Amino acid sequence: MRIAALDDDALQLDLIKQATEAMGHVCHTYLNGASLQREMRRETFDLLIVDWHLPDTTGPEVVRWVRETVGTQMPILFVTNRQEERDIVEGLGSGADDFMVKPVRIGELNARVSALLRRAYPDTTGGALEFGRYRFLPESRSLQIDGVPVELKNREYDLALFLFQNMGRLLSRDHLKEIVWGQVADVMSRSLDTHISRLRTLLDLRPANGFIVSAVYGVGYRFEAVEAPPKT
Q1: Which of 25, 68, 75, 76 is the most buried (most CB within 10 A)?
Q2: For 84-110, how does the pLDDT look when each residue is reduced to its tens digit (9 = 90+)?
Q3: Residue 28: phi, psi to the nearest 5?
Q4: Is the overall model pTM greater than 0.90, yes or no?
């Protein structure tokens, strides 16, 4: 998963980054609210970890901005020195999903992050996943359309499954590249575009089949379910 962490303490950010990346996630760090807000206008994340005291704003103000701008799907975790009941009430009331008091305990952080991600993005690796005519079989990493197998390369399968599992979400280009190629891969934009184009063809993604993938200028792609036009 792709995580954003906001804290004015570089050491705390490094600790959070190391802990979450040891769990297999990708973590992007920010030292002030303005830099995070600037990035979130063009990038997408699966979870936000935010401190309360920031040099240019407050954690609750950032959370309210995220909820108004990005939406409600992405889980948000407060990690802060504030620990009074009124602080917890205000933090959760601003739109956060969970609240953790510093000093950061790695085991607790891992557990809270895992719980939030599990709730927001349920684990679907245990059995077949069906989306209309499309049936994913995670154990064999295969896809069927109307019961007919579709031959996909590994990255094409990963990208297709990720798009279906994140239906309706706007996903930035870097988000998609990190999911499919990994955080260290230097992937050219046209490689992602080529993969998207191939999936449109291989999966016949068009309104008649109930799904489309659209480019959003300056950001990335959105995969959506649409109502198929009536047959004439």
Answers
A1: 76
A2: 999 999 999 999 999 999 999 999 999
A3: -105, 135
A4: no
